[in-house]
Design a protein that fits this description.
The chain is α/β, with parallel strands linked by helices and about 525 residues long. The chain is about 35% helix and about 15% strand. Helix 5 runs parallel beside helix 13, helix 8 runs parallel beside helix 9 and helix 10 packs across helix 11.
Length: about 525
C-alpha cells in the first residue's frame, strides 16, 4: 500500500486523504496512523516540513510525540503521557499556535500558553469526579505568523471527522491578525469545528450584533480591545484629554492595532495634537527601523502638553518606544503610557530597558488576568472567585502534574489558555439525558449559549459569562504596571470593568435594546 500511495499524483495532503480513505475501507487503523497521516522523514508523524530553504518549519499536528521547540520538551512529554494513559471514551482538543517563534519572549509566551492548556486537560481527567468524556490534547503548529494555517486547519478538519480521534474543539490563536481571522473562519464556518480563542481581542475577530455569524461556533474568554479600553477609561476617569496623545502604527490589516486606534481615538477627544505615527515592519515581530522613528518622535512629545500617551502598537515597537522615552531629554517630565493586553509579553523581553521605569515613565496596560486579581483584600464579591484561581495555582505546582517547564502565572498567558481549555471542556461535557458521551460538533457550538448565569465558567481569570455572540460579558480586566521593584516585575494595580462596575450575580449580558438606566 505504501508504494501505491507514493505513485499517486499530488502533494502530501492529497496522498494523506487517499490514505485515510483506504484505511477506512480496510476497517480503520490505529490512533496514530489515522490521526497523524503517517510519518514524514523531515519531522515526525503528522508534522510536515514547509517553507523555502533557510525558513523551513515543521508544521502540523502532534499528540506530544513531536517536540516543536526545545522549551516545549517537558510539557510535550507530559501531554504525550497523559494522552497515552487515557482509557474509555475520549475526545480531542487541539491547541493551535505558532509553536516555534524566533524571539525569546515569544517562546516564553508559547510555553506558558501550552502549559495552561495542559493544566486544563489534567484537571479535566483527574479532578472532575471521573466525568466523561476524557480529554486528549493535540498541538497544532501553523508556523510563524500562521503562514501555513490552511494545510494545518485542513488536517484538523480531517481529524474532526475521525472516529478514532474525535477532535471536538480548537483553542488558541493568541494574536489578532488577518491570517488568524482566516483560520478561525475556515475552522468554524467551513469545517464547523467549535473554537475558543485565547487572547484574540480585536473587536472584528469575533461575532457581534452587526455580524452575528462571522464565525459560527467561536467563543472568546478575554475582553475585546474596546472593552479593555472602556475598562481603562473607567479606571483612569480623572485623565484630562487635553493632556493626552496617541502614538499609533499606520500599518493596515492588523486587527489588534486597528481596534486600539479606534478605541484610543474615542478616549482622547479633546487632545490638542494629532496622533504621532510610525510604520512597523509587516512582520511586526522584527526590529525594523522604528527605534529611529521613536528617537525623533520623543523629542516632539517633549514639546507637547501630554502627560498620558496611548500606544496603539505591537510589543516590539512598544518596547522600543519605552526605551526611547526613558532616554528622553525632558527628564523633568513624567509620562504614563497606556496600552492593551498585547503588552503582556514585555516583562520577558530581554531588550526592555527597565531603567525607564525609574526615570518617570509608567507603563500601564489591560492584562486579561493576574494572580492578585482575586486573592487580594480588594477583590469584589462578584465577577470571579479566589477559589477558581487557587485551583490553577495549586495545579501548577503539583508534583502529580509532572515537570512541564518553568511556570509563571503573572503574564496572564497560562491563565488565559487554562480558561480557554476549561471553557471548551465545560461545553463538551454539557449533556442532557440520552445524549451520547461523544458530542457532535454542533451540540458543542450550541452549548456556548448556555455558558452564562448558573452555567457560567468560573475561570481563573474571572467569571466567563458568554453573551449571544460568544463574547464574555463585562469580563474583569486586571490593570497592571511594569515595575522593576516587584517579584515578576508586573505590579497589580486594580480590577476594572468595561461597564464601570463588577459583573452582577446573574452573570448574564444586558438587553441592549432597553434604554440605559
Amino acid at each position: 500500500m505504501t508504494s501505491f500511495i507514493r505513485r499517486l499524483p499530488g502533494g502530501p495532503l492529497t496522498k494523506a486523504a487517499v490514505l485515510l480513505a483506504v484505511l477506512a475501507m480496510l476497517g480503520g487503523a490505529a490512533w496514530t496512523a489515522l490521526a497523524f497521516l503517517g510519518p514524514d522523514p523531515g519531522c515526525g508523524k503528522g508534522v510536515e516540513k514547509r517553507g523555502s530553504e533557510g525558513t523551513e518549519e515543521c508544521t502540523g499536528v502532534t499528540d506530544g510525540s513531536y517536540v516543536f521547540a526545545p522549551n516545549l520538551k517537558e510539557v510535550s512529554a507530559r501531554i504525550k503521557a497523559e494522552n497515552d494513559n487515557i482509557k474509555g471514551d475520549y475526545v480531542s482538543i487541539a491547541v493551535m499556535l505558532p509553536m516555534a517563534p524566533a524571539q525569546g519572549f515569544e517562546q516564553d509566551k508559547t510555553l506558558h500558553e501550552v502549559q495552561g492548556a495542559y493544566l486544563a486537560q489534567y484537571r479535566a481527567n483527574h479532578e472532575s469526579n471521573s466525568k466523561k468524556p476524557a480529554i486528549r490534547l493535540l498541538l497544532a503548529n501553523p508556523g510563524r505568523s500562521h503562514a501555513y494555517w490552511r494545510p494545518v486547519a485542513e488536517q484538523l478538519g480531517a481529524l474532526s471527522q475521525s472516529g478514532s480521534v474525535n477532535l471536538r474543539a480548537v483553542i488558541g490563536f493568541d494574536v489578532s491578525t488577518t491570517s488568524t481571522q482566516q483560520a478561525i473562519a475556515y475552522l468554524t464556518n467551513e469545517r464547523h469545528i467549535p473554537v475558543v480563542g485565547g487572547p484574540i481581542t480585536a473587536d472584528d475577530s469575533g461575532n457581534s450584533a452587526k455580524t452575528p455569524n462571522a464565525y459560527r461556533g467561536l467563543a472568546r474568554v478575554v475582553p475585546t480591545t474596546s472593552d479593555q479600553a472602556a475598562a481603562l477609561s473607567h479606571f483612569n476617569k480623572g485623565i484630562d484629554p487635553r493632556n493626552t496623545l496617541v502614538v499609533e502604527d499606520i500599518r493596515t490589516g492588523d486587527n489588534y492595532v486597528d481596534a486600539l486606534k479606534r478605541a484610543f481615538a474615542e478616549r482622547t477627544k479633546g487632545s490638542p495634537r494629532a496622533p504621532e505615527q510610525y510604520r512597523a515592519p509587516e512582520e511586526f515581530h522584527e526590529e525594523g527601523a522604528t527605534a529611529n522613528a521613536f528617537d525623533q518622535m520623543v523629542d516632539t512629545i517633549c514639546t507637547s502638553s501630554a502627560k498620558v500617551v496611548y500606544f496603539a502598537g505591537r510589543p516590539v515597537q512598544l518596547r522600543q518606544f519605552i526605551n526611547e522615552l526613558g532616554n528622553r531629554g525632558c527628564t523633568e517630565k513624567k509620562y504614563k503610557v497606556i496600552t492593551g493586553s498585547g503588552a503582556s509579553t514585555l516583562s520577558s523581553d530581554k531588550r526592555l530597558e527597565w531603567s525607564a521605569f525609574r526615570k518617570g515613565v509608567t507603563l500601564q496596560y489591560a492584562a486579561v488576568a493576574h494572580p492578585e486579581a482575586w486573592t487580594g483584600p480588594r477583590a469584589p464579591a462578584t465577577g470571579g472567585s479566589p477559589a477558581a484561581y487557587r485551583t490553577l495555582a495549586t495545579l501548577s505546582t503539583s508534583a502529580a502534574v509532572g515537570n512541564i517547564g518553568p511556570v509563571d502565572l503573572t503574564d496572564s498567558r497560562t491563565i488565559t489558555f487554562y480558561d480557554a481549555g476549561l471553557t471548551a471542556i465545560t461545553a463538551i461535557r454539557m449533556r442532557d439525558d440520552g445524549d451520547p458521551v461523544i458530542p457532535t460538533l454542533g451540540r458543542i457550538s450550541d452549548s456556548w449559549l448556555r455558558l452564562h448565569g448558573m452555567g457560567k465558567v468560573d475561570g481563573a481569570s474571572g467569571w466567563i459569562c458568554l453573551d449571544n455572540y460568544g463574547n464574555p460579558f463585562n469580563k474583569a480586566v486586571s490593570v497592571v504596571e511594569l515595575a522593576p521593584d516587584v517579584p515578576g516585575r508586573i505590579r497589580f494595580v486594580g480590577l476594572a470593568w468595561p461597564t464601570g462596575k463588577p459583573t452582577p450575580k446573574d452573570c448574564t449580558a444586558r438587553n441592549d435594546s432597553l434604554p440605559k438606566p
